[in-house]
Amino acid sequence: MTIEVSEVGAKGAAAREASRSLARLSSTVKDRALLGIARDLLEHESYVLSANREDIEAGRAAGLSNAVIDRLFLSHERLEAIANDVRKVSLLPDPVGEMIDMRTLPNALRVGRRRVPLGVIAAIFESRPNVTVDIASLCLKSGNACILRGGKEAIRSNSALASIVREAISSAGGPPNAVQLIENTDRALLGELLRMRDTIDLVVPRGGAELIQYVAANATMPVLTGGIGVCHTYVDRAANTEKAVAVVNNAKTRKYSICNALDTLLVHQDIAEALLPDIARKWSAASVEMRCDEDAYRILESAGIAGLKLEHAAPDDFGHEFLALIASVKVVDSLDGALEHIARYGTGHSDAIITEDYSAAMRFVDEVDTAVVYVNASTQFTDGAQFGLGAEIIDSTQKTIARGPVGLREITTYKWIALGDGQIRP
Asked: Is the CATH number of domain 231-381 1.20.140.10?
């Protein structure tokens, strides 16, 4: 136990010390480090993919689900995508030092706010090794040191990626200790990490509900949560059916193992007879299982679609995040019915309406209480890179600190600056 405490404590202290020099680092050096990370990821591809193959083999031997294996898997294409996101971060404006709301008071005192790093951000995550690079890159650009604690299923991949990131930072003239990876995968270490209030300024859990709830309940520092997404797409009576089929199919099948994949399809009763069979044909080809309420089941059973995986929905199929090729389907009698269903079962992550009716679209935008609301677009876009943020720390479902994809500005804070010329308070 002493060794475990020593690793977490020592790496935390190293990150805190590095955060002070990182906060003073110029944009030029930070961007040089980021470009070095992107370059080295591809130059050392064989090293990273070899480590990842070992994780995949161990995961399969341990009986991990296909969804987890997919999140864990790296390839040349995925490494290129990660490297491209790092390059995008390098091209973004540096938020550190930005002045906000500068104004001159009647007494000639000039006051405003200046963006500064938070300090040290801890990220606790599962499965996805790309998170190692995403968070390290965003923290580097925003002047924050980071402590990364991934799951044991990705430890070899995370170690390889973290070593590349640290070396690139050092080569560019930055402090390599600004990125720390906790290599001991014993979950008991989480308790110590979450008590390090004097070292860590913000903790971000990314993973399943159990992990997020544990961190939120035990952390002594602020927590930024998200990731659990029960995502709905509502097809309104005024929808363009061709557009609806394309969007719904993409929202479910492009990548089903991510938190912003469609879980529940809601269809207005006036369009259900025409629309549902078209969607079912697409989903049948993609092996999507449809768990339907009585109205949707009746429509699809009579459609006679070959190979369709059709089931009656159980009560807990609504409000469930599947992370699999499964979707619940419900026919609603109105926009109000769709809004009520989302209010009851949604998790405030990403929800969409497909409609050509402007008034319906604006009601949906105004009334759905969700971090990201879409009109005539797939929920698969909820992603920092897709939103022009380069990458993201998390997709936050909170209403404080930050909401939705969290990028550079959201992981800075500010200090008030007051510039005077001898003013004294009467």
From this structure: no
Q: How far is CA 152 from the centre of its chain?
A: 20
Low-confidence ranges of the chain (pLDDT < 50): 1-5
Query: What pLDDT digit, counting tens, does each position of 323-341 carry?
Result: 899 999 999 999 999 999 9
List the one residue out of 255, 278, 259 whose CA is nearest residue 267.
278
352, 232 contact by CB (below 8 A): yes
CATH 3.40.605.10 fits 2-224+406-419, yes or no: yes
As a residue count, the chain comes to 426
Report pLDDT digits (tens) over 11-50: 999 999 999 999 999 999 999 999 999 999 999 999 999 9
Residues near 36 by beta carbon (within 8 Å), at least 6 away in sequence: 168, 169, 171, 172
**Ramachandran region, residue 315 (left: φ > 0; alpha: ψ -120 to 50; beta: rest):** alpha
As a whole number of angstroms, the distance between CA 401 and CA 403 comes to 7
CATH 3.40.309.10 in the chain, residues? 231-381
Q: How many angstroms separate the CA atoms of 25 and 152, rounded?
A: 33
Q: Burial code of 270-283, b = ≥16 C-beta within 10 A, e = fewer? A: ebbeebbbbbbbbb
CATH 3.40.605.10 in the chain, residues?
A: 2-224+406-419
pLDDT value at position 401?
A: 83
CB 134 within 8 A of CB 11: no
pLDDT tens digits along 61-113: 999 988 789 889 999 999 999 999 999 999 999 999 999 999 999 999 999 99
* Neighbouring residues of 332: CB distance < 8 A, sequence distance ≥ 6: 234, 266, 267, 268, 269, 338, 341
What pLDDT is recorded for position 227? 67
This prediction's pTM? 0.87
Residue with token string 């030092």: 97
| 3-class secondary-structure state, position 12 | helix
Mapped onto helix, strand or coil, the DSSP state of residue 59 is helix
